[in-house]
């Protein structure tokens, strides 16, 4: 099935996703430096993130898990010129690549890249740090429920939280798989259920060039 999913994504992209030299350069630079491309969102997923931001006229965005900043550039593209993104990456090598790609993009929005474990960086923010309008959680999967709680503390009523990779080719329902990354996603589902700070949430499976996976979507109460 993977071949067909990839071909259909290519068909969708060729019709609906305009070629963007900066995003193409970001992918090329990532590959040229020997980093895997499967960690990045697909172009049609990047567009979905962009549209969610546009629909809600968000100005302040938080991203956990920058990787090569491909998604970061999609997020920035959706913001007005005075928009702000705080993006956090745990691995030095990824952060160096991301900073290079961000510099190269020369976008007017402010993109602040911090290196460190996302939970530590978030806990170190000042108490009065202004809440985010949109949060994309895409860092280490074993910490998703912790990231969700920290994100909710940095949200206001109406903040949207998107969590990537919540299906993992169905491994979430394979009870024999007890990898921390999979257990982390299961803990996230438990945390989402009846959470007092959440107005509504859902999760959607996706198939495409990045395989079979899914997003969870949260609207903060
Ligand atoms: C992995 C991480 C991601 O965020 C993703 O979108 C795909 C794969 C991974 O760690 O394998
Ligand atoms: Mg991801």
Summed up, what is this model?
This protein has 221 residues and is an alpha/beta fold. Helix content is 41%, strand content 24%.
Describe the model.
Pfam families: Methyltransf_3 (PF01596). Keywords: Methyltransferase, S-adenosyl-L-methionine, Transferase. InterPro entries: Cation-dep_OMT, SAM-dependent_MTases_sf, SAM_O-MeTrfase. Its EC number is 2.1.1.-. One of its GO terms (molecular function) is methyltransferase activity. The chain has 221 residues and is of the alpha/beta class. It has one domain (2-220): Rossmann fold (3-Layer(aba) Sandwich). 41% of the residues lie in helices and 24% in strands. It has a 7-stranded mixed β-sheet with strand order 3-2-1-4-5-7-6, sandwiched between helices. The longest helix has 15 residues, at 2-16. 38% of the residues are buried. The structure holds 3,4-dihydroxybenzoic acid (DHB) and magnesium ion (MG). 3,4-dihydroxybenzoic acid (DHB) binds at residues 38-39, 138, 164-165.
């Amino acid at each position: 099935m993977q071949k067909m999913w990839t071909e259909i994504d290519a068909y969708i992209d060729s019709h609906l996703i305009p070629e963007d030299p900066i995003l193409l350069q970001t992918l090329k630079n990532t590959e040229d430096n020997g980093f895997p491309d499967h960690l990045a969102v697909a172009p049609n997923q990047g567009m979905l993130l962009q549209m969610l931001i546009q629909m809600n006229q968000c100005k302040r965005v938080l991203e956990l898990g920058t990787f090569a900043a491909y998604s970061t550039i999609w997020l920035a593209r959706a913001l007005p010129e005075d928009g702000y993104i705080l993006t956090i990456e745990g691995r030095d090598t990824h952060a160096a690549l991301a900073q290079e790609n961000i510099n190269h993009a020369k976008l007017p929005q402010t993109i602040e890249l911090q290196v460190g474990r996302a939970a530590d960086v978030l806990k170190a923010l000042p108490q009065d740090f202004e809440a985010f309008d949109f949060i994309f959680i895409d860092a280490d999967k074993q910490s998703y429920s912790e990231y969700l709680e920290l994100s909710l503390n940095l949200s206001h009523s109406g903040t949207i939280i998107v969590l990537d990779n919540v299906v993992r080719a169905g491994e979430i329902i394979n009870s024999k798989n007890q990898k921390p990354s999979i257990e982390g996603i299961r803990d996230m589902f438990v945390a989402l259920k009846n959470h007092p700070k959440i107005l509504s949430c859902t999760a959607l499976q996706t198939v495409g060039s990045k395989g079979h996976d899914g997003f969870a979507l949260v609207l903060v109460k």
